[in-house]
């Protein structure tokens, strides 16, 4: 007997229903159930589970250490270049250039804490104003989000896992980019973050305190310091203009030193009359204990050691991630996975469901404070998103919390600054904090404003179909765009505006092309158009005579890029006409007033913008 029509329709509907790729998968337990095991089998399973847990903790430890070694390798390769970049104060005064420098330097040293500390040291030494440092701090926030994006690439073998992992990683990227797109222009126009943090710092009588607690470093330093140990003061010294720092190696040779100041008899150079000596306090550094890392006596260049560390740490990092994912897949199945997913992804009952996201932000901030690295925390949850334990909607507030947590250690470090530099150091640390808080207010508080989730899912769908696009995204967003904007910033503001504001260039070109003149009375009259481009106080004068055979002045080749560019247009008679130069009229106009320009010159020729 044939089934009823309704039954056929239901079966067909089930077949036609498409599975949502963003639904968390059910991790099925393929092993024997616990109740079906005998005593020996239960004991064996417990031992295997304990061994898996120990192996997972060991892999996480190696993963965190490899991230630390990776950061130090990048500092050896590009740390001195990062210090040199920070020396160019003229470039740093451009907010866009400052933003890009923050991104690039954080990419070079692979640590927002290091790049932020360089900025703080420059502000403390007076080489950089707090207002100038604000865009750089924004850039460090963007640069630090590349780590978990690269970590997501290790799950590219499975399309479904890669879709979720890459979206879970890039939701952090999109939050940082969107926050900068809104807050950087706002800061440039109003000084919002600068004024707010200045008010907070001046409102409280804050005194210097202890150094930031080293929680995770207590565990990881024994291993990382046995491999490499760096003198990070060299980078700060280069940034602050110390001439001796450029000749120093970043690789630390002496781990224990002592300063000894003595009163010595010093000879006066070029002395012309006796006495030719004087007493001075001379400070010398006495080396006490040598470091014990493996590169201390190799005499290799910083670049060579950095490349070795990069290769070694990347191999360990990728290996750890692969085994972590396999272990999690074997451990998080059946009832265990259901319990974990229910705890992490379930909201509080109505009407308090909105509280869950803010609790996740607090958890993310707390965990990041414990590990003292947002890169470590977000990189650790990325594989969990890939295998389906954490949803994108829950990974988003966790990532936002990590942005908050990474600023707390900077605040504590600023509190340890000397009294004379405490105010500026603390203000920069608070700028970092309130930048992230403002971003959360923009892109999380209102549910319909959680645009980063939508963008991350769209990018995840694209990369699942075209996995090469993930590499293109990383190179384009974190290298090509920052380098392009930085190069244009070095070229000057006109070039930067010409690329970033093409509509302004097109409008100026159209206005220039509409400039026409009537030469019916005197065909041989010549009109000279004098363009003065003001670029950083230097004037570049260009003379563009139109062709006599045409009745319109074609200025399409001119790049009138700046709104404050002043254009002088004057008329001059041709050589066979005698004319008094005093009768020539010259006018200075701005681009915005071209539509109402009318020029009357000698002889009776009329030029008008139509």
From TrEMBL:
It is found in: Apical cell membrane. Keywords: Cell membrane, Ion transport, Membrane, Sodium, Sodium transport, Transmembrane, Transmembrane helix, Transport. Coiled coil: none annotated. The keyword Zinc does not apply. GO terms for biological process: intracellular phosphate ion homeostasis; sodium-dependent phosphate transport. GO terms for cellular component: apical plasma membrane; brush border; vesicle. The chain crosses the membrane at residues 50-71, 174-194, 303-328, 348-369, 376-392, 398-416, 428-448, 468-501. Its main location: membrane. One of its GO terms (molecular function) is sodium:phosphate symporter activity. It is a multi-pass membrane protein. Belongs to the SLC34A transporter family. This is Solute carrier family 34 member 2a.
């Amino acid at each position: 007997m044939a089934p009823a029509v309704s039954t056929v329709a239901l079966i067909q509907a089930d077949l036609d229903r498409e599975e949502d790729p963003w639904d968390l998968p059910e991790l099925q337990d393929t092993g024997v159930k616990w109740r079906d095991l005998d005593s020996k089998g239960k004991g064996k399973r417990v031992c295997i589970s304990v061994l898996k847990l120990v192996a997972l903790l060991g892999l996480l430890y190696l993963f965190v250490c490899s991230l630390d070694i990776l950061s130090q390798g990048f500092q050896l390769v590009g740390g001195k270049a990062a210090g040199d970049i920070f020396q160019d104060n003229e470039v740093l005064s451009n907010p866009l250039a400052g933003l890009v420098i923050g991104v690039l330097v954080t990419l070079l040293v692979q640590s927002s804490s290091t790049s932020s500390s360089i900025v703080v040291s420059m502000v403390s030494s007076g080489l950089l104003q707090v207002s100038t440092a604000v865009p750089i701090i924004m850039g460090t926030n963007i640069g630090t989000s590349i780590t978990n994006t690269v970590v997501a690439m290790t799950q590219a073998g499975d399309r479904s896992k890669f879709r979720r992992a890459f979206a879970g990683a890039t939701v952090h990227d999109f939050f940082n980019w969107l926050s900068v797109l809104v807050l950087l222009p706002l800061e440039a126009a109003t000084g919002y973050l600068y004024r707010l943090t200045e008010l907070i710092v001046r409102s409280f009588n804050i005194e210097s305190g202890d150094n930031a607690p080293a929680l995770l470093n207590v565990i990881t330093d024994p291993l990382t310091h046995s491999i490499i140990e760096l003198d990070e003061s060299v980078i700060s010294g280069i940034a602050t203009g110390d001439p001796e720092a450029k000749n120093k190696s970043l690789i630390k040779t002496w781990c224990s030193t002592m300063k000894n100041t003595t009163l010595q008899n010093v000879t006066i150079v070029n002395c012309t009359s006796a006495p030719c000596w004087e007493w001075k306090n001379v400070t010398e550094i006495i080396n006490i204990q040598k470091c014990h890392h493996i590169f201390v006596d190799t005499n290799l260049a910083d670049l060579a050691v950095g490349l070795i560390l990069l290769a070694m740490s990347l191999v360990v990092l990728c290996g750890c991630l692969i085994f972590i994912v396999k272990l999690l897949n074997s451990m998080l199945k059946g009832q265990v996975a259901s319990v974990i997913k229910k705890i992490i992804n379930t909201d509080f009952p109505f009407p308090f469901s909105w509280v869950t996201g803010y609790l996740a932000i607090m958890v993310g901030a707390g965990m990041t404070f414990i590990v003292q690295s947002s890169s470590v925390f977000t990189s650790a949850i990325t594989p969990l998103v890939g295998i389906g334990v954490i949803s994108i909607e829950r990974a988003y507030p966790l990532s936002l919390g990590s942005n908050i947590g990474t600023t707390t250690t900077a605040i504590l470090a600023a509190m340890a600054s000397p009294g004379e530099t405490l105010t500026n150091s603390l203000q920069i640390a608070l700028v970092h904090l309130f930048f992230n808080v403002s971003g959360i207010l923009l892109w999380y508080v209102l549910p319909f404003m959680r645009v980063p989730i939508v963008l991350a899912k769209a990018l995840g769908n694209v990369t699942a179909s075209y996995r090469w696009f993930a590499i293109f995204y990383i190179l384009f967003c974190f290298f090509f765009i920052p380098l392009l904007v930085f190069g244009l910033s070095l070229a000057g503001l006109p070039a930067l505006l010409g690329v970033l504001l093409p509509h302004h260039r097109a409008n100026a070109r159209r206005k220039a092309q509409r400039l026409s003149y009537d030469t019916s009375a005197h065909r041989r009259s010549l009109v000279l158009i004098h363009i003065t481009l003001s670029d950083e106080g230097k004037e570049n004068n260009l003379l563009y005579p139109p062709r006599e055979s045409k009745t319109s002045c074609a200025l399409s080749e001119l790049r009138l890029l700046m709104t404050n560019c002043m254009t002088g247009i004057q008329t001059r008679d041709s050589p066979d006409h005698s004319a008094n130069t005093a009768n020539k009229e010259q006018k200075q106009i701005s681009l915005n007033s071209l539509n109402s320009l009318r020029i009357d010159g000698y002889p009776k020729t009329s030029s008008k913008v139509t």
